[in-house]
């Protein structure tokens, strides 16, 4: 305590009350005073011309996580002067311009080698828990398992910067292995970054120590709508505030394949079950096969529908098919794809009662490929195969029973879509069958002639028998006796 202006009052005295605080403003302090408190209050008597000093030991925990930032030591004091003898109540007062609070920095000595410059070596790698293919619509979350290590000196304010598609939204961090390293990804800036497909996470702030290693899962929710890409890149970069860094493994990029879950099924909904022809007659019968293709998933997609049906046997027309579509929406364009012909095989008919399969194994088939540009979610498209079946072509096969078979097959872009339903898997290819029987015409003329001759012979026999009976004596006496009885009665 010193005078600001000279006077003749001799030695001046005052009492000072002061308060010391360590790491003021931090939620968790790094140092304490001897009584394990981060603050203390004390008094001291001061006199002009004399200095007074007091010492207060400061203790540190065994492990200080943050030793890049200095510890703040805050001092606040007040001064109360004592009455000056023979001064009629005068007291020394503190100059109004004197600072009554002060903050001091207690620096750490960095362990950064001989050059005293910390050089970190952040190494990052990661993979996806479900592999490098994500099926949108089946998977609801994406889990990236991240491994980060510091292979050199301490790293200051280490951060991980995620760059990913915007349809992945950050959900949470979970540790794979127990670790004292903390990963903090929640702040207000991240709310703005995530909308553009970015995420920033602090690694054990403020110091990620040398030799440290951490493994954790980063979980992202997947938005299933409005996505059409077939691949995506995911990048994680590790940064720090160190002035010297080894960066050759501080960034890692991984590509993933995007596939979309679909569920499409075909079914036969209406068809001609049975018809017959009469052998030796030129006849035609109308045959109809109707198929329904349904999208059972909540995602629209383009599909290909292949319709296969027999049209000729040899040089004779078999089934004159016209293909029409039964639904007004989801229009398709159908183009001839191919025609396939196979020779008739005699072993097809094993027993007389067996039906011969009238398909592409013995007939010339027509294949139509119908492109449905967009089959809407839960949408339906119906195909009608309708036409006259010709008996002349069937006669070429010389069989009595046949199964007229048509088939529908579904396909789509396998590089983009994945069928996820095991229940509808058998309904990607469906057939319909119409039983055809060739009936032999019955010749009734021999029966008529035989019946007429037989009747005539029977009549002749009856006449002869009656004639002989009429001329016999027993027969005459019986007639006379019967006449008398009738008369007497």
User: Average pLDDT across residues?
Assistant: 84
The radius of gyration over CA amounts to: 52 Å
Number of strands: 28
- The global form is rod-shaped
Task: Explain what this protein looks like in three dimensions.
- By secondary structure, the protein is mainly beta.
- The protein has helices spanning 188-194, 391-395, 445-470, 473-488, and strands spanning 13-22, 39-47, 71-81, 101-106, 119-128, 133-136, 141-150, 155-163, 168-175, 183-184, 198-208, 213-222, 231-239, 244-246, 251-262, 264-271, 274-278, 284-295, 301-313, 316-317, 319-325, 332-340, 356-358, 364-375, 380-390, 401-411, 417-419, 429-439.
- Strands 17, 19, 20, 22, 23, 24, 26 and 28 form an eight-stranded mixed sheet that branches.
- A hairpin with a 2-residue loop joins strand 19 and strand 20 (316-317).
- The protein is rod-shaped, with a radius of gyration of 52 Å.
Helices and strands, with pairings:
Layout: E1 13-22, E2 39-47, E3 71-81, E4 101-106, E5 119-128, E6 133-136, E7 141-150, E8 155-163, E9 168-175, E10 183-184, H1 188-194, E11 198-208, E12 213-222, E13 231-239, E14 244-246, E15 251-262, E16 264-271, E17 274-278, E18 284-295, E19 301-313, E20 316-317, E21 319-325, E22 332-340, E23 356-358, E24 364-375, E25 380-390, H2 391-395, E26 401-411, E27 417-419, E28 429-439, H3 445-470, H4 473-488
């Amino acid at each position: 305590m010193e005078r600001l202006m000279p006077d003749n009052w001799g030695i001046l005295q005052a009492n000072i009350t002061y308060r010391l605080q360590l790491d003021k403003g931090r939620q968790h302090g790094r140092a304490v005073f001897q009584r394990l408190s981060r603050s203390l209050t004390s008094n001291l008597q001061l006199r002009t011309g004399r200095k007074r000093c007091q010492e207060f030991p400061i203790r540190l925990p065994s492990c200080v996580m943050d030793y890049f930032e200095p510890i703040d030591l805050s001092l606040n004091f007040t001064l109360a002067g004592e009455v000056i003898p023979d001064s009629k109540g005068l007291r020394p007062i503190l100059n109004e311009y004197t600072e009554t609070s002060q903050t001091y920095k207690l620096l750490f000595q960095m362990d950064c080698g001989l050059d005293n410059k910390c050089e970190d070596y952040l190494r990052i790698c990661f993979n996806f828990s479900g592999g490098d293919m994500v099926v949108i619509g089946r998977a609801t979350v994406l889990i990236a398992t991240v491994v980060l290590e510091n292979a050199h000196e301490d790293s200051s304010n280490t951060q991980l910067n995620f760059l990913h598609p915007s349809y992945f939204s950050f959900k949470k961090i979970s540790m794979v292995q127990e670790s004292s390293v903390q990963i903090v990804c929640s702040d207000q800036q991240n709310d703005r970054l995530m909308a553009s497909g970015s995420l920033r996470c602090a690694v054990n702030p403020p110091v990620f120590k040398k030799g440290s290693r951490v493994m954790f899962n980063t979980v992202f929710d997947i938005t299933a709508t409005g996505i059409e890409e077939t691949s995506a890149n995911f990048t994680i970069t590790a940064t720090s505030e160190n002035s010297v860094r080894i960066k050759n493994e501080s960034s890692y990029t991984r590509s993933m394949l995007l596939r979309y879950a679909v569920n499409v099924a075909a079914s036969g909904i209406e068809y001609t079950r049975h018809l017959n022809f009469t052998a030796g007659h030129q006849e035609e019968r109308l045959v109809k096969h109707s198929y329904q293709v349904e999208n059972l998933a909540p995602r629209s997609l383009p599909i290909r529908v292949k319709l296969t049906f027999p049209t000729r046997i040899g040089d004779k027309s078999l089934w004159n098919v016209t293909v029409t579509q039964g639904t007004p929406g989801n229009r398709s364009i159908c183009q001839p794809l191919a025609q396939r012909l196979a020779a008739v095989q005699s072993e097809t008919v094993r027993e007389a009662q067996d039906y011969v399969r009238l398909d592409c194994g013995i007939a010339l088939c027509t294949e139509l490929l119908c492109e449905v540009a967009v089959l809407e979610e839960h949408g339906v498209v119906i195909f009608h195969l309708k036409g006259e079946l010709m008996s002349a072509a069937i006669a070429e096969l010389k069989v009595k029973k046949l199964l007229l078979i048509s088939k529908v097959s579904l396909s789509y872009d396998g590089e983009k879509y994945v069928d996820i339903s095991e229940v509808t898997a058998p309904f990607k290819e469906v057939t319909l069958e119409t039983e055809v029987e060739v009936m032999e015409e019955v010749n009734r003329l021999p029966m008529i002639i035989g019946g007429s001759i037989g009747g005539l012979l029977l009549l002749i026999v009856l006449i002869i028998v009656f004639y002989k009976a009429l001329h016999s004596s027993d027969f005459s006496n019986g007639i006379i006796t019967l006449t008398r009885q009738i008369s007497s009665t």
